[in-house]
Amino acid sequence: MERGSKTLGTTPTSSRNSIKQTSIRLRGKAIPGAEDRQKKIVGFDQEVFSKSKVVMIGAGGLGSHIAPPLLRKGIGALTIIDNDEVDVTNLNRQRFYEADLEKNKAIALVENLKRECIFATQLTGYALSFDEVIRTGVDLDCDVALCGVDNNPARVASSRYFRQRQIPIIFTAVSADADHGYVFVQEKKGACFGCVFPEAVNNLTFPCPGTPAMIEILQTMGALAVYSVDSCLLKRPRSWNYREIYLSDGQWDSGKQLTARQGCPLHHLQQDYLAG
Ligand SMILES: [Zn+2]
To answer: Of the CATH numbers 3.40.50.720, 3.40.50.150, 3.40.50.300, 3.90.1150.10, which one belongs to the domain with range 20-29+40-275?
Structure first.
């Protein structure tokens, strides 16, 4: 197996005994001095940031605009989870190249991200769905998680998983007309994903293949998600937990501090309901 030296595990996937790579682990190279300018930003603590671990669910359009900045800023560890494969229609907006076609997205993104590192970041990728990773018993302990997937079942599962572990998780998504998007920060307490999107909790539908998508709204939401990571880890201020941006008209933009919803379909499992 060509990439055998990098794998953590493999799973036979067909009766022909072909082996599919299910994980990858790489380490970035520290480049002393590369962090000089950002260390001067008030509230940014390089030492804390470079000791922090992030788990990112989804290596598509949103993850492609979240992961590279985290590495340029020198995050300590980044684990990426995605069971999808790179398709030619992804190349207009996702951090993949022609040579990556048909590779698993989590594996290919980790490989492409190594060059983005300025620190000895531990990069890990799992070519599995979030559910499969949980069932496999992989340790997803981290300081903050990110969810940039295109379906509600994975958002709901990750909301539950990280709330139960008291780990903040940042959700982000964009509209199919590529005009607007949101970032929602689910903290250790307070509003959860189900409080903000109660209708999504039992919505098992997946987006239609071929949904329109363009890069600039993904960059916009990626930037807000990356800032949100800083605000969870460091003393960079954030007065909102829900932010919405419209490219076409600023009057619709919003930044709010949402609170827990009575009757939230996810929240009744949480002990901290009243604290929210
Ligand atoms: Zn809730």
So the answer is: 3.40.50.720
